[in-house]
Amino acid sequence: MLLIGERINGMFRDIREAIMKRDPEPIKKHAILQTQGGARYLDINTGPAVPPEEQPEVMAWLVQVAQEVSPLPCCLDSTNPEAIEAGLKVHRGKAIINSTTADPWKMEIYFPMAVKYGAALIGLTMNEKGVPKDANDRLALAMELVAQADAYGLPMEDLFIDPLVLPVNVAQDHGPEVLETIRQVKLLASPPPRTVIGLSNISQGCPNRPLINRTFLAMAMACGLDAAIADVEDEELVNVAATANLILNREVYCDSYLKTFRRL
Amino acid sequence: MTVTIAKERWSGRCLEAVLGTGSRQVKVGGEATLPFLHFEGEILNPPVVALEVFDASPQEWPDFLCAAYEGVLDDPAAWAKKCVEYGADLVALRLTRIHPDGENASPEEAARVAAAVAAAVDVPLIVLGCGVGEKDAAVLPEVANALAGKNCLLGLATQENYKSIVAGCIANGHAVIASSPLDINLAKQLNILITEMNLDPDRIIIDPSIGALGYGIEYAYSIIERVRTGALMGDKMLAMPVILLVGQEVWKTKEAKTPDAPEWGEQKKRAVLWEVATAVALIHAGGHIAVVRHPESLKHIKAHITKMMQPQQY
Questions:
Q1: Are A252 and B236 an interchain contact pair (Cβ–Cβ within 8 Å)?
Q2: What is the pTM of this model?
Q3: Ranges for the Pterin-binding domain (chain B) (predicted)?
Q4: Quick one: pLDDT at residue B1?
């Protein structure tokens, strides 16, 4: 189970302010906390407050600051292809691009970029028409992403299909459809593409967010989820990931399993 | 129509352990693939074979096994030299005299014997206790001290007695055998406990407590296989090389011990092949160091390893 730490994101106030002041300390703090917490990737997102023309430079700065204190690779999270490429240029190790949709014009940008930089790519099962209603429509878009990976020569293990998690309070009927999509994506190719979710979306605007996140993570892992962008500073959430990993026999049991899951 | 060779892409690899010093130093492990799959990943070192030396003339060995060491059975240092002449990569000294129910020899006495054996040969030395946890925990640190700087392999350390043995290894630059009772979960946990004492992971050798052919070998086989795939999938607490205490198990079997059994054929041939079959099977499961007793077993196993180390590339 690959946990991608979500915290270095300009949507959070401390990171937004750090970006505005170009203060590296809060970035470093969360890079270290998430590395120790069990993350294997650090998501990096400039947030909406940074104007588009500044995003490439901010992305590159965030990647460098984070990698200065953490050995982890980054998951470059932006809708701006120039910001992604600026991050890739300064990145050390194998990055993940977050993300492309299944729109042809976007796939034409991001698949070649992933291949050029040897990066993995998250593909969202949506297009200009929006988020599909059910598992079948999500799978149809996942298949288009799989076909493009094949066409551009991106190894299937480097494609992460994101079936798009929506908040349980306003889009409750999507929950089971997402779980079914995760299950079925594994049948689309051999070797299969990997799967990822933006976990915290499930609890947007809800009370008891950590409880909802943890519960959904265990359920999604049982369906075959490979990765999650999540709050790895939530210790109990990471404990759930470690425990579900064990129960799925993905790691050999030992009494110190909570510790080994966090060890690099 | 071409055939594509299926090659697994492993994310991890086995740790490489270095034993002994000088020109006869032995390196084991370091593989990036399953046993002998040269076409799929790097195999840095061949598996190695050790012969056993007892600190006192063994009482229950069949005559033909004693005959192989005639004249040296009462002299561990001379016996060890004989093992090297036979082609052993390492010598495994077994401290039988320290057993509390037997002679109950002192740690100092054991250390003296170990030092004499170490001085007699230039191959790396393995020192095995008597199997009584408490006594081994008292004796092995003393042995570690006497062999300081010789980079030996000491054991067996178990979950009950590892602390003093590991401390002795850290202080004197030795590697340790971490032993668990046919249980991969305990094997992994013990490795974690030992590394938490700050012994480097490449100073640990896993003893899965094998069973001989016909006596539970299949349990050992699947555990060793799981250890290897764990290592190759990136589990660092399963990436240590594996030692196979073949001799101690095989020479307990009735197939090796029974002289008169017409339906089983000649005893010597049978006993040697029992050692060879046990060792070879478990080397193919992923074992790195086979410890055997008969020099003919050693010869056959080494011939097999040489053959298997011829690389196949596609």
A1: no
A2: 0.91
A3: 46-310
A4: 80
